[in-house]
Write a structure and sequence with these properties.
alpha/beta, 3 helices, 41% helix, 16% strand, globular
Length: 73
């Protein structure tokens, strides 16, 4: 499941009820903030869904902070 528009943690519940085992947040082609991305990642982890994130750019700051917010890959 890929997310680009929904910005609330309820999307994790939707993915869980649909039985997705991974969830992909696209920060490159959306305006998701790091804080919003982290909140959604943590909600997914609590439901047993692997959160994956595509970072907005290849700067060390972008790459290093996303896993700190709960992304697994």
């Amino acid at each position: 499941m890929t997310v680009r528009l929904v910005r609330t943690v309820e999307i994790a519940e939707i993915a869980g009820s649909a039985r997705f085992d991974t969830f992909y947040i696209d920060m490159e082609h959306s305006s998701f903030s790091l804080e919003t991305t982290a909140q959604i990642c943590m909600a997914r982890l609590a439901l047993g869904i692997t959160p994956l994130v595509r970072v907005a750019n290849t700067s060390p700051e972008s790459i290093g902070r996303v896993p700190d917010g709960g992304a697994l890959a």
